[in-house]
Write a structure and sequence with these properties.
It is a single chain. With about 700 residues, this protein is α/β, with parallel strands linked by helices. The chain has 4 domains: about 1-105, Roll (CBS-domain); about 110-195, no CATH class; about 230-475, no CATH class; about 485-695, HUPs (Rossmann fold, 3-Layer(aba) Sandwich), CATH 3.40.50. The strands form 8 sheets. A 6-stranded mixed sheet has the order 14-16-15-18-13-19, sandwiched between helices. Strands 23-22-21-24-25 form a 5-stranded parallel sheet, sandwiched between helices. It catalyses: (R)-4'-phosphopantetheine + ATP + H(+) = 3'-dephospho-CoA + diphosphate. One of its GO terms (molecular function) is [citrate (pro-3S)-lyase] ligase activity. Keywords: ATP-binding, Coenzyme A biosynthesis, Cytoplasm, Magnesium, Nucleotide-binding. InterPro entries: Citrate_lyase_ligase, Citrate_lyase_ligase_C, Cyt_trans-like, PPAT, Rossmann-like_a/b/a_fold.
């Protein structure tokens, strides 16, 4: 966050610059954070020197970057700070070329959250804000200036709430000045540039100054929590009308517990949690508590945790986690507890993993899918939930902290189906269920929650289900695209529309998506089989250049090998079919073979946008006994694509000498320089390319 301050400065002239003297100055008591201004002999400003530059940037000792006042100051400040990590302060000059303030950058976790909340409130006019939650407040007084208070000013202005600027810095930096208003003090909110923590409304109605403020932004967190609760309850009501099984589960706040020990109190007061970015790793007692929570040292846990994070880098949406490939799904929607690394736990200790393993032991064929959204997030919850393809045997569970007192304060109803207060109060002495707060669960806490979810919700619903009947789609997932992605998709749809068979209306049109790395007799068998089963066939060749053979090579070889098929057209897949954007794990499958993928976006884009343009009604795939990632992709396609009226046809793979023909086998033989075996499993055009044109040094 960009902030401003006034600082006492010391002036030195260019001719007097001496490193030893500067060291003596900065090392003397009380001067290590001071700023030295450098001028030339004409008294013109040259730059500034700080202790950090003296230590680490002696080759560029004088910092010359400056800022000018104006509304673009925020963007310009970030550019300068990002250009040099040893810039701590930037001089700010006004229109008269007078030094008026210094600009500095501050990073605090809560301020990042508050920034996100303001963005959501600015974009979502329907979200409850001051007028709805604090109707008695008629004006807001702003003291001081920083990036957050400026954003809050814009938000208030957009929501037509009276704003009164109280200090000259707004006019000096931004040229903003307001008039005072005559409103009783008890109807005014005062906000200081460092924020307000809480609005305390006194019960004594006769007291005029009834709102008191602390110096942080927690009242905005309350507003975000309330909006999140409203959204979750709205989704639940909507889903229930659609016969979708949706539940709300709440975890108690620490202050609601009546059973806790001194160590839990200590961890709570000191925010001792692995998810705390400001964790004091130098404090012995803190590290002792972390070891108790993790069951291992902080260093050992961090190493294992980072290895797991690295393994998951090929997953497109880090906020979505899936375990299992079963058709029916239990969705867990919540904050950190619903993520793959929930509360910085190792994977085997997370709620999602433990729930999936528990269901497997019960003999239930269910996948578990977690959707992790910060507790302060509310704007996109509904949009993200709407991306889910939900069937009649699926169950959705919202899980987060209990906000009963907050709901009572604002008159909001939270329709909770399962409150885990009694469960958390039942834990035995010495059992560690959470780190600093009950929402930050350990393996022990997650195991208890899994049992409770199963006994109170999941088992009750499963007993009512008839698994002998085929699943019915209750909600088709809607793909969530950014404006930029939508523009690119529209361009791609326009391009492929030009390749459409003009007389295909009313006919059966099929498609195959292939990488062909390179094309083999196995691929050709699938293509010829499909071309005979439909009137027209489109072959999409994966355009992403992350395979052994380039896209140009693969595309050319497919065109040549299929030239004899009259009802076929070969099309580049673009960035929306099996691409690094829609399914990055596909391109890491050779060394991350066991990863569980989520292909719903890739399949959804195809079914909702691409298939209608080309009148595609059938999608063919080859059976995949060897490739775990592709097999998952096919199974998820079977689950989703039929909901859009598109047939799913799986074709048996072609074999040679009792072995499935695969492109990976060709690449292996190529490295062995075994062209006799290659010739048996690839079309002549592919063989000629590999034999005569391909540079075998690429195999090294």
């Amino acid at each position: 966050m960009i902030c401003f301050c006034e600082k006492e400065v010391y002036v030195i002239y260019n001719e007097e610059l001496e490193v030893s003297n500067l060291f003596s100055f900065f090392c003397s008591p009380g001067h290590s954070t001071d700023i030295v201004i450098v001028k030339d002999y004409r008294e013109n400003f040259v730059g500034i020197i700080t202790y950090e530059r003296l230590l680490y940037k002696r080759d560029q000792l004088v910092q010359t970057q400056i800022l000018s006042t104006g509304v673009n100051i925020w963007e310009e400040a970030y550019k300068i700070f990002n250009s040099d990590k040893y810039i701590l302060y930037i001089p700010v000059f006004d229109e008269m070329n007078e030094l008026v303030y210094f600009c500095y950058q501050r990073v605090m976790t809560q301020e990042v959250e508050v920034d996100r909340i303001m963005d959501q409130l600015y974009k979502n006019d329907a979200a409850l804000f001051l007028s709805e939650l604090y109707p008695k407040i008629k004006a807001v007084y702003l003291y001081g200036l920083n990036e957050l208070s400026y954003k809050f000013y814009k938000l208030l202005y957009k929501r037509n709430i009276t704003v009164v600027i109280q200090e000259d810095i707004w006019e000096i930096i931004l040229g903003i000045k307001t008039k005072d208003v005559k409103i009783p003090s008890f109807m005014c909110m005062k906000i200081y540039s460092d924020g307000t923590e809480l609005i305390v409304e006194e019960k004594d109605q006769t007291q005029k100054d009834r709102f008191s403020f602390k110096n942080r932004w927690e009242f905005l967190l309350d507003i975000a929590f309330i909006n999140r609760i409203i959204v979750e309850n709205s989704i639940k009501n909507s889903f229930n009308r659609m016969s979708i099984k949706c539940y709300i589960c709440r975890i108690p706040l620490f202050e609601e517990l009546n059973n806790y020990d001194l160590e839990e109190v200590f961890r709570h007061m000191k925010y001792i949690s692995l998810s705390n970015p400001l964790l004091n790793i130098d404090d012995k007692e803190t590290m002792k508590q972390i070891t108790k929570v993790c069951g291992m040292s902080h260093e050992e846990h961090l190493k294992k945790y980072n290895n797991e994070i690295t393994e998951r880098r090929s997953i497109k949406d880090s906020h979505i986690t899936k375990y299992g490939r079963e058709e029916s799904t239990i969705y867990i929607v919540g904050p950190c507890i619903a993520s793959s690394n929930g509360n910085h736990n190792l994977q085997k200790d997370t709620l999602l993993y433990l729930l999936y393993e528990f269901l497997k032991k019960q003999g239930l064929k269910y996948s578990v899918k977690g959707i992790s959204l910060g507790q302060e997030s509310f704007q996109n919850v509904e949009n993200i939930v709407n991306t889910l393809s939900i069937k009649d045997k699926d169950i959705i569970i919202f899980i987060s902290c209990n906000r009963k007192k907050l709901c009572e304060k604002f008159g909001i109803k939270d329709s909770v189906d399962l409150f885990l207060l009694d469960l958390f109060n039942s834990r035995n002495e010495g059992e560690i269920w959470f780190s600093d707060n009950p929402i930050h669960t350990t393996r022990k806490g997650n195991e208890a929650i899994v049992n409770e979810l199963y006994n109170k919700i999941i088992d009750q619903e499963i007993k009512k289900m008839d698994f002998s009947k085929a699943s019915v789609c209750l909600q088709q997932g809607k793909v969530l695209l950014t404006e930029y992605e939508r523009e690119n998709l529209n361009l791609y749809l326009h391009d492929i529309a030009a390749l459409k068979f003009s007389d295909s209306i009313g006919d059966e049109v099929g498609t195959i998506v292939m990488n062909c790395n390179p094309i083999t007799y196995g691929h050709l068998h699938l293509i010829e089989y499909a071309s005979k089963a439909v009137d027209y066939l489109y072959i999409f060749i994966v355009e992403e250049d992350r395979s052994f053979f380039t896209f140009e090579e693969r595309y050319k070889l497919v065109k040549e090998a299929t030239a004899h098929i009259p009802n076929l057209r070969v099309i580049p897949s673009g960035q929306f079919i099996l691409s690094n954007k829609t399914l990055p794990a596909y391109f890491t499958k050779e060394y991350k073979k066991e990863i569980i993928i989520d292909a719903s976006e890739d399949i959804g884009i195809f079914a909702q946008y691409i298939a209608p343009v080309l009148n595609i009604s059938v999608r063919f795939v080859g059976q995949e006994p060897l490739d775990f990632i592709t097999n998952q992709y096919n199974m998820e396609m079977k689950r989703i694509i039929t909901d859009y009226g598109i047939k799913f046809v799986e074709i048996p793979r072609k074999e040679q000498s009792g072995e499935v023909i695969s492109a990976s086998r060709v690449r292996k033989l190529l490295k062995e320089n075994n062209f006799d075996e290659i010739k048996k499993i690839v079309p002549p055009t592919t063989y000629n390319f590999l034999k005569n044109e391909f540079d075998t040094d690429r195999c090294l």
